[in-house]
């Protein structure tokens, strides 16, 4: 059989967006080792990305989107003929119906693989892009699934959605590379503990559920609350630290944490989340606390690598327990790291990824 040739159509510039970095870009070493010829074709360029989530910047956003459509048109009309597989991460283009996907799958009859890690059929856009939200065509997700040769879904909730429209849907969790990137191990000791959260501006809202609890606990115990994000939430806490997210310092910043948290709302959008915060924490031997929503119930092994917190009392109790017990943190962190290596690492999932192209 001939070696597969794969065209990856992705939304964002390389090295910028977590979903793309950890579901596509992280597997590049394995594609190379397998001798697979591939190309990654982003829709958006770096300049557009810089303005995307800022208030205003309308001209830059519009011009960036126009440039993206022109590039994508060339990709699907000309470049695509050099490949026999087309891997679409989330969508080929951010606005409008799935025209590019239709051209790839129906007109050119390429084997299209659709990959997604959020409940992207549900309307969920930021206030910075309220106009674009009206043009998103969230309904297109089911049609892209119908057009696809295979679907790679980040959790069972997403896979079950896909199975309504296409029987060839496989589970492929979001992973971390525990040899090349997430290879550190938190050293738990009797220093001043750090409770931490990492995410983006779009998920900062979930901190609203936990701030009052952190505030109460800081009146009782001496610990730091750390946020790693692309926007400073400026939380009104006694001891609050902010680290601007950077790919260069991501692992170093995460390793400042002794406990990682992931509060969520119990809704359909959260059901689609793939627990990536938890995967990052646990891969570095940082025990995790999370709301019992969706895949969190699978990633957190209750009492082994962390705790599920169903209410304010749970959050307060388990944060307090872990803050005051360094040995428990170390034991849970070790268990979590082993669990991630077995099920949520590229080392454990690369064969599933490569099998998409067979």
Task: Give the gist of this structure.
With 358 residues, the chain is α/β, with parallel strands linked by helices. 39% of the residues lie in helices and 16% in strands. The protein is built from 16 helices and 12 strands.
Hey, roughly how much beta strand do the residues contain?
Answer: 15-25%
Helix proportion range: 25-40%
Topology as H/E string?
Answer: EHHEHHEHEHHEHEEHEEHEHHEHEHHH
Main sheet: strand order: 2-1-3-4-5-6
Q: Tell me the Rg in angstroms.
A: 21 Å
Largest sheet: 6 strands, parallel
- What structural category arises from helix and sheet content? alpha/beta
Instruction: Give me the CATH superfamily of the largest domain.
Output: Glycogen Phosphorylase B
Q: Based on CA inertia axes, which overall geometry fits? A: globular
Mean pLDDT: 95
Can you count the beta strands? 12
Characterization of the model:
The protein has helices spanning 18-23, 28-33, 46-52, 58-77, 99-107, 130-133, 140-147, 156-163, 211-220, 250-254, 268-271, 276-283, 296-299, 312-323, 326-343, 346-355, and strands spanning 5-10, 37-42, 85-89, 111-116, 150-153, 169-171, 194-198, 224-229, 240-244, 259-262, 288-290, 306-308. The protein starts with a strand and ends with a helix. The radius of gyration is 21 Å and the shape is globular. It contains 16 helices and twelve strands. α3 crosses α4 (58-77) and α12 (276-283) packs across α15. With 358 residues, it is of the alpha/beta class. It has two domains: 5-172, Glycogen Phosphorylase B (Rossmann fold); 194-343, Glycogen Phosphorylase B (Rossmann fold, 3-Layer(aba) Sandwich), CATH 3.40.50.2000. The longest helix is centred in the first third of the chain and has 20 residues, at 58-77. β11 (288-290), α13 and β12 (306-308) form a beta-alpha-beta unit.
């Amino acid at each position: 059989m001939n070696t597969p040739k794969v065209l990856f159509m992705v939304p964002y510039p390389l090295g910028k967006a977590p979903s793309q970095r950890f579901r596509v870009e992280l597997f590049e070493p394995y594609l190379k080792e397998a001798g697979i010829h591939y190309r990654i074709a982003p829709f958006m360029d770096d300049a557009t990305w810089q303005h995307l989530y800022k208030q205003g910047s309308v001209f830059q956003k519009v011009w960036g989107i126009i440039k993206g459509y022109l590039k994508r048109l060339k990709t699907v009309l000309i470049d695509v003929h050099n490949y026999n597989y087309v891997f679409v991460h989330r969508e080929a283009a951010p606005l409008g119906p799935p025209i590019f996907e239709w051209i790839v799958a129906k007109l050119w009859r390429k084997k299209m693989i659709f990959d997604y890690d959020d409940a992207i059929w549900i309307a969920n856009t930021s206030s910075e892009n309220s106009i674009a939200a009206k043009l998103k065509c969230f309904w297109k997700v089911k049609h892209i699934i119908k057009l696809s040769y295979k679907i790679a879904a980040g959790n069972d909730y997403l896979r079950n959605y896909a199975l309504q429209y296409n029987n060839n849907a496989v589970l492929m969790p979001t992973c971390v590379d525990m040899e090349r990137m997430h290879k550190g191990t938190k050293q738990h000791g009797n220093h001043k503990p750090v409770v931490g959260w990492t995410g983006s501006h779009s998920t900062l809202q979930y901190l609203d559920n936990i701030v009052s609890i952190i505030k109460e606990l800081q009146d009782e115990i001496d610990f730091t609350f750390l946020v790693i994000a692309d926007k400073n939430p400026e939380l009104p806490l006694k001891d609050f630290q902010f680290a601007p997210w950077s790919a260069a310092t991501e692992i170093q910043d995460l390793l400042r944490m002794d406990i990682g948290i992931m509060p969520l709302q119990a809704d359909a959008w959260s059901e689609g989340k793939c627990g990536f915060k938890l995967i990052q924490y646990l891969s570095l031997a940082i025990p995790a606390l999370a709301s019992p929503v969706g895949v969190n119930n699978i990633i957190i092994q209750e009492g082994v690598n962390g705790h599920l917190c169903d209410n304010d009392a749970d959050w307060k109790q388990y944060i307090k327990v872990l803050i005051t017990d360094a040995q428990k943190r170390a034991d849970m962190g070790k268990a979590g790291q082993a669990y991630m290596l077995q099920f949520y690492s590229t080392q454990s999932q690369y064969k599933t990824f490569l099998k998409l192209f067979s």
